[in-house]
Amino acid sequence: MSAEAERLARARLSHAVEPGDAKVADGVSRAGAVRMVEEILDDDSRPQLAARVRETDPVRVLAVAERAGIRFVTPADAEWPDQLDDLSHGQRVQGLGGSPVGLWVRGPMRLSELAESVAVVGSRSATSYGFDVASDIAASLVRAGSPLVSGAAFGIDQAAHRGALGAGGPTVAVLACGADRAYPATHRELIDHIGRHHAVVSEAPLGSTPTKVRFLARNRLIAALTRGTVLVEAAVRSGALNTAHWADVLSRVLMGVPGPVTSATSQGVHNQIRGGAAMLVASGQDVLELVGVSGQHLLPVPRGPERPHDRFALHEVRVLDAVPVAQGASALSIGRIAGVDERESQRVLDALAAAGLVHQGVDGWRLARPARS
C-alpha cells in the first residue's frame, strides 16, 4: 500500500470519525488506515459512520486545510510526536482511547519539539491565586526549555498560555474544536497568536465545534503529548481531573499545586495529592525536578538560615548549652555540666567568645545576648 494512499485514508478517517474512537484507532493500528476504511464501508453495524466516510473526499479536505495554513500530521511524518504512540497501548477512559489517526496543526512549531513539554491545566473558574501560580509555573518551564501545553480554555489554561508567552514561549494549544476555529470565541486573539508563532493542535476535523466527548478526547492528547501534567485549582467535578486521570493511565508525572484548604476550587487537587496520585509542587522548579532528566533540575535541600553555633561540634554545643544566662560561671563548672575537662572547656569558651556567643565577666562566663534567643 502506497504511503500516499495511507495518508489519504487517514485524512478521510480524521474528517469522518469522532476523536477518541477507540475501535477505529485499534483498527488503524492493527491493519492500517486503508484497510480500516474498507472495513467501515463494509460494516452494516455503523451505517452513519460508513456514510460519513463514504461522503468524505480526502483530497478536498487536505486542500481546504492547506489554504487555511493548516497541515495534517500523521505517524509517517518526521514531526509526529512518538509519545502519542503510548495511547495505542493504554487503557480506555469513558470509552475513549487510542492514538489519533492524525493531527491538524496550525503554526510553525514542530510537534516533535514537545518531547520535553509539560501540561498545566485546571479550573475555568480560577481565582487570582490560581492565575498567578499557573502563569509563574508556565513561565519557569519555558525559560528552562520545556514547552507549555494547555487547552486555551478560560481560567488556568489561559493563565498558563499567557505566562509562557510572556516568558517568550513556546506554547501549544490543544483544542476540542477544529484547528481553524477558536474556542472559547473570546480567546480568538490568544489562540490566533499561538497559531501564528507556536502551534494550535486538534484531532477534530476542520470547522467542527467542541462537544463534551471531544473535550474528553482532547484531554487524553494533552496528557499524552507531555512528560507531566500540573493541576492548578480543580474542584471535585473539574474536567481537568479527566486530564489527570489520563496522565495516570499513561504513566506520566501528575503534579498538583495546593490551595487554601477552605477553597472548593482546590479540593480536587487536594484529593489527588492526598490519595497519592499527584506529587505536591509549588513552583516551576519543583515541576522541573520531577519531569526532567534524572539529576538535571535537582533542588537543594531546604534549610533554615544558618546560625553561628551550627558550625560547632556536638561537644562544643554542649559547652554552649551549659553557659548560664544571668549569673557567671567558671570554665571548670561549665565543663562539668558539659562533660569535658577544664582545659577543653576553656578552649571551647574562647572559640564561642570569638563567635560572639558568650562573654567573660568578673563573675565568670555567661551567654551573650544574641545567643540567648
TrEMBL record:
Classification via InterPro entries: DprA, DrpA_SLOG
SUPFAM superfamilies in the cross-refs: MCP/YpsA-like (SSF102405)
Ranges where the Smf/DprA SLOG domain occurs: 72-290
Origin: domain of life: Bacteria
Signal peptide region: none
GO BP term, example: DNA-mediated transformation
Family note: Belongs to the DprA/Smf family.
Protein name: DNA-protecting protein DprA
Biological source species: Nocardioides piscis
Name of the gene this protein is made from: dprA
